[in-house]
Amino acid sequence: MKASLVLKMGQQLTMTPQLQQAIRLLQMSTLDLQAEIQEALDSNPMLEVEDDNNPSSSDSQNTAQEQSSHTQAAEPSEAAENTSSPAETTDWTEQIPSELEIDTSWDDIYQSSASNIPSSNSEEWDFTSTTSAGIDLQTHLLWQLNLAKMSDSDRMIATVIIDSIGNDGYLQESLEEIQESFDPMQHIEMDEVEMVLKRVQQFEPTGVAARNLSECLLLQLNTLPSDTQWLAQAKTLCKEHLELLGSRDYNQLMRRMRIKEDALKNIVDLIQTLDPRPGSIIESKEPEYIVPDVIVRKANNRWIVELNPEVAPRLCVNAQYAGFVQRADNSADNTFMRTQLQEARWFIKSLQSRNETLLKVATQILDYQRGFFDYGPEAMKPLVLAEIAEAVGMHESTISRVTTQKYMHTPRGIYELKYFFSSHVSTSQGGECSSTAIRAIIEKLVAAENPKKPLSDSKIAGLLEEQGIQVARRTIAKYRESLGIASSTERKQLL
């Protein structure tokens, strides 16, 4: 076979480090971006936060040097002003007596001005404000266990029981499994486990360590005063007919308990005051707050969008350090400073590109969904990423990165940018209706329904069809579940 030389021409896209950095910053959330900026400030001496007191990056080195000279000239005068004579300054040790009286605390004699935390005896003292994080359910139960009077054996059993309690407050393991977890040489009987379980069930929150929902509700009912109205009937319902209550079969429930509708309503109202998940009261997680990236507000009857200035600080190049860089110097220190200067400029440019892209996309979303800002979710229009990409002259993947984990603050609330994108459903007039608008209509219909005769999915589909929106019953069920709305059977209530 004869060898031959073939020439081929092709194109290949190579992403520069600057472009990679810009894309990485673009897809970051607000918290990740703040962490990235802080890391850049800590690692790069050329970067600094721009404020009113700092010179901008465009300032020359002479400005920085002049400012430095002024500072040096002012230091002696400031030192002279701050230096006071011994006669004018009072020795702080003279304020504290050499000997303190018996039962005298330090706070009674001297109080530090640096501490803003009130004393524990003060009325303004708030223990929860001084704790960084809450405790979990197990820790709360173990704290109560340490205060209870038990034998060593019972305390050991109680510890195992507490470890078997889930975050919702229910016992995750059976008593047989708890008994089998002990060493046979310890001779732990089932009666002992049951007795200790009843002790643990007396801990707070009420209803904890229950094995099922019925037991959980009964534990809470047992703590109510004996003269509570409908208490006996509520216990009977939770003990024998809880499944009928869960299925909302009120007719069968009234026949089984031989009561009328008014009495059943009072009993159900009493049960609804109980907590089916007592463990959720003890929350160990700290709340997570959303910081919006853009803000939409109305000024002079016109909607405007702007970047949130609190998301990311304005960065600039330190003029003083930049003035130390010499072009002709090839030393290691100068090479390092040139590299840091270039990286700082790239980082600032990438941040600017991110902000500009985010502002462009948010502005286009505002223009497309102006009806939402004026009238609410029911006026939402169908919108896809391709439409915004075409409007701003970018690729769909870029728009997807911009709208992911980015939030917009509006007078109607805080929404993720993805919220404004939705598919469409055809109408009888040949138009299109957004799926978000359909969800809003469903939510409005359910809120206005008769609680005794809630709307079924088929009925909701019929009401939407009367408005010219053709939606299948299965689609209604999907939208309803996404909104967290229960079925018509579960929504049925007693009047």
Bin the strand percentage. 5-15%
Indicate the low-confidence ranges by residue numbers.
55-90, 111-120, 124-132
Specify the structural class.
Answer: alpha+beta
Specify Rg, calculated over alpha carbons. Answer: 34 Å
Described by strand count, sense and barrel closure, the largest sheet is: 4 strands, mixed
Please count the helical segments.
23
How helical, in percent, are the residues? 40-55%
Report the oligomer: single chain
**Overall strand count:** 8
Report the mean per-residue pLDDT as an integer.
Answer: 79
Give the strand line-up of the largest sheet. Answer: 3-2-5-6
Query: How many angstroms does the end-to-end distance come to?
Result: 93 Å
**Tertiary shape:** extended
Describe it for me?
This protein has helices at 17-26, 30-43, 61-82, 106-109, 127-130, 137-147, 152-163, 175-180, 190-200, 213-222, 231-240, 242-246, 250-257, 261-272, 319-322, 332-368, 370-375, 385-392, 396-403, 435-447, 457-466, 473-482, 488-491; strands at residues 47-49, 294-298, 303-307, 315-317, 407-410, 413-416, 424-426, 432-434. Among the domains are: 135-283, no CATH class; 294-420, no CATH class; 424-491, Arc Repressor Mutant, subunit A (Orthogonal Bundle). The longest helix has 37 residues, at 332-368. The termini are far apart. It is of the alpha+beta class and 495 residues long.
